[in-house]
Amino acid sequence: MRRGVLVPSALAASLLLLVPASAAAGSPGRSSGEGGAPGAPGIGDPYYPAAGNGGYDVSHYDLRLKYQPATDLLEGTATIIATALQDLSRFNLDFGLTVDEVRVNGRTAAFTRSGDHELEITPVAPLPRNRTVSVVVRYAGKPSELKIGGWTAWHRTPDGGVAAQEPASAVWWFPSNDHPLDKATFDISVAVPDGTQAISNGVLRSRSSRLGWTRWNWRSDRPQATYLATLAVGRFDITTDTTANGLPVLNAYSKDLGGDAGAARASVERTAEVVEWLEGVFGPYPFNALGGYVPNVTSGYALETQTRPFYSPRQFAVGANVSVVVHEMAHQWYGDSVSVKGWEDIWVNEGFARYSQWLWSEKEGEGTAQELADHVYALHPADDPFWTVRPGDPGPDKQFHLAVYDRGALALQVLRNTIGDEDFFAVLRGWPAEYADGNASVGDFVEYAEKVSGKQLAALFRTWLYEASKPAVPPGVPAGAVRAARGARSAAPPAEPRSYRKIAATDTVHDRGHGQGHDQGQGGDHARAHSRDHGRVHGRDHGH
């Protein structure tokens, strides 16, 4: 589905109306008389129709795992606590490894496979609507050998393995309702050989050793999207601390990072400082722990895995870069606590994370957000394909295109100039509180910004997020100064802010593929390849 032309007075309402009714978790399925009906095999996302499932809502995942780094063998028992949203005769989980047994409410259930990653489960009796359901899945397999659409989201490392990808990674290591609309709390318990560490989300509750194996027990006590769950097994140096507010900080670094080790530490060890500053911008930190980890992977991207972002060593290949830490920690508010309703709403994640880098630059005295906006606007001529990407609905092939980040941040600078700093920063702080632990769309944000500012903002967002052309008026030009701005086009381009190259060095933050290169103007060949392949994972080939 694509949005049509939007008239200014109806933009926010139009955006909200265009979210499909099926986007509510589980809403695609309906009861059809006695015995119930099957839950839908997809949650209703227009970009990835097979992502997620209908008919139920998960509240908690308990994952008890055992992983052997030498062979990449993962064995697991997943206990899923959910509520039936309809009378369910059958339901699906998204999962790719080999399943040995499924139990529903303690009783053995029949199961079969369909498509690339659908696990269809039939309980012995239909599940009544509004009842709590427990599902136990026992499974095993080698995640790196599971290929869906020709690729795997599992990183094999010299001493273990890592699960960290967007928009999907859960399929490779635990069964789930794999869409951000169905968030849940997590307990993740992982046994690994002694001398090896298992890093995951949230708080490390306990660690114990027995018969050559060490079990690491992690807890995330706030709702978390499945793609934000992470697991890293290997040999790490771990640092721990607490914030001024008493939250635990845990960072982990592969012991074989080589020349990138110092720069990685010099960046990630500033996480608590960055979060303290971000609290002044976005409000109280939303989770029970913070930190980050840097495994020895060959990829080039970073990812906002909840409470503990993943960083590829290549993010620090040219030296320390706190800007990427700012980006990923900003996502804890924008993307993690408040998650997308559908993947078309990706701007609500990425535009704000990029803009936080601009605000950090402003704070560090290395270029104001306005100077960065002026530079980015001037950097891309009108015929640059950069301007053909619509951040408010970029399409699955362009979901992680640079324009979603930079043009998305430009929209925020224009908003700031339009409503003034007082209302702008009230919006930045109020939005994560308004939608905490939930989901929201671009249309929700437009509506919220209009409510706070008292101004009609539809034309602004249409111009900067939805029109496939370069806006005629630069981001720093006030209303009524259009003619002067057009006459100044021949003037010298604005100077490059000192922070720009450091921020641009994090452009591969959105290159979710294998990190083998990045074309700033087009979003990177591997980013595009990954989007196409992920479309196949979720039942959609984008035809490229």
CATH class of the domain at 340-480 and 493-505: Mainly Alpha
How large is the share of residues in beta strands?
15-25%
| Helical residues, percent | 25-40%
Structural class: alpha+beta
What's the shape?
globular
Distance between the termini: 18 Å
Sheet having the most strands: 8 strands, mixed
Oligomer: single chain
Q: How big is the Rg?
A: 23 Å
| CATH topology value of the domain at 340-480 and 493-505 | Neutral Protease, domain 2
Given the structure, what is the number of helices? 12
CATH architecture of the domain at 340-480 and 493-505: Orthogonal Bundle
> What order do the strands of the largest sheet run in, or round the barrel if closed?
6-5-9-3-2-12-15-14
Number of DSSP strands?
A: 23
Fourth CATH level, the homologous superfamily of the domain at 340-480 and 493-505: Neutral Protease Domain 2
Mean pLDDT: 88
Any descriptors?
544 residues, alpha+beta, Immunoglobulin-like, Neutral Protease, domain 2, 8-stranded mixed beta sheet, 4-stranded mixed beta sheet, 23 strands, disordered N terminus, disordered C terminus
Structure write-up:
It is globular and about 70 Å long. The protein has 12 helices and 23 strands. The longest helix has 33 residues. Helix 6 packs antiparallel against helix 7. Strand 20 and strand 21 form a beta hairpin. The strands form 6 sheets. Strands 6-5-9-3-2-12-15-14 form an 8-stranded mixed beta sheet, with no helix packed on it. By secondary structure, the chain is α+β, with helices and mostly antiparallel strands. Among the domains are: 143 residues, tricorn interacting facor f3 domain (Immunoglobulin-like, Sandwich), CATH 2.60.40.1730; 154 residues, Neutral Protease Domain 2 (Neutral Protease, domain 2), CATH 1.10.390.
